[in-house]
């Protein structure tokens, strides 16, 4: 009994936090989906399935596909850039490693909006990137870099790249160096040792990093609004507009629930894949 009380005491604050800030809001969102929108917004407590029928309308499905595509490209680029970065940091001397890690997380000490507005300064027609391109004679006139899908991807990539690098670094840094020595003694060249030893051992961290980047990229609405100029709607913008502009809370809740369900499935796949990979490593 004493042990149970100790566990309850230790778990109580965390469980209370999760219940108040995750379980209760999700329950409210779930309950809103079955009601109707009032004439001037709000809720009319009359059950309906119209919200679910509207959610599969091609117009909204196109927004979801666009969001998944942008988040997927961002995740892929983060993996292609983040893996070499984490690999280099993991093999730096101890002092240089600390400096590199501090530099990696340093942008998080700045407000997210300020960092996003900085990209507007960089990508605008009179910005630094266009000034450099025209100054070097690479283009005759400024390029339309801002308010495009590549601009959104660049902003998301800059914002969430550390979330890819850090899990990969943790996995690479704790790897046993004797495994690579054994591979070399067996005649494996560095490239082959990397593909047969290092890469398989970091697959769980790769999956974790992909989830860490994909999930916030999919739901982000600030970057598409500022760097996309409202021309490219993502699901986060759609949910926000339903709640704050259209005042259609039931439909906004339905869209939010669909995104949450998709992300839960993604997390379950990641957890299952991670267990399979770890099981194969032990085998």
From TrEMBL:
Principal localisation: membrane
Membrane topology qualifier: Multi-pass membrane protein
Pfam family for this entry, one: BPD_transp_1
Domain of life: Bacteria
Coiled-coil annotated residue ranges, if any: none
Compartment(s) where it occurs, according to its Swiss-Prot or TrEMBL record: Cell membrane
Full protein name: ABC transporter permease
Species annotation: Paractinoplanes durhamensis
């Amino acid at each position: 009994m004493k042990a149970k009380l100790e566990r309850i005491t230790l778990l109580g604050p965390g469980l209370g936090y999760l219940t108040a800030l995750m379980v209760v809001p999700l329950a409210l969102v779930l309950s809103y989906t079955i009601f109707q929108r009032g004439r001037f917004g709000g809720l009319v407590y009359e059950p309906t399935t119209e919200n679910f029928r509207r959610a599969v309308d091609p117009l909204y499905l196109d927004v979801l596909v666009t969001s998944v595509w942008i988040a997927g490209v961002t995740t892929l680029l983060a993996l292609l850039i983040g893996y070499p970065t984490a690999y280099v940091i993991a093999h730096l001397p101890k002092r240089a490693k600390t400096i590199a890690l501090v530099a990696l997380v340093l942008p998080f000490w700045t407000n997210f909006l300020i960092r996003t507005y900085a990209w507007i300064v960089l990508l605008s027609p009179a910005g630094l990137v266009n000034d450099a391109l025209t100054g070097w004679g690479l283009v005759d006139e400024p390029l339309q870099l801002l308010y495009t899908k590549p601009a959104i991807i660049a902003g998301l990539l800059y914002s969430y790249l550390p979330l890819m690098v850090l899990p990969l670094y943790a996995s690479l840094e704790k790897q046993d160096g004797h495994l690579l020595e054994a591979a070399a003694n067996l005649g494996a060249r560095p490239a082959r040792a990397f593909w047969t030893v290092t890469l398989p051992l970091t697959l769980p961290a790769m999956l974790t990093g992909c989830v860490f980047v994909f999930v916030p990229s999919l739901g982000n609405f600030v970057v598409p609004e500022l760097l996309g100029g409202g021309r490219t709607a993502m699901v986060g913008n759609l949910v926000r507009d339903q709640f704050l502009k259209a005042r259609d809370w039931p439909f906004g809740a339905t869209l939010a629930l669909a995104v949450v369900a998709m992300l839960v499935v993604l997390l379950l796949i990641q957890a299952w894949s991670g267990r399979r990979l770890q099981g194969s490593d032990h085998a």
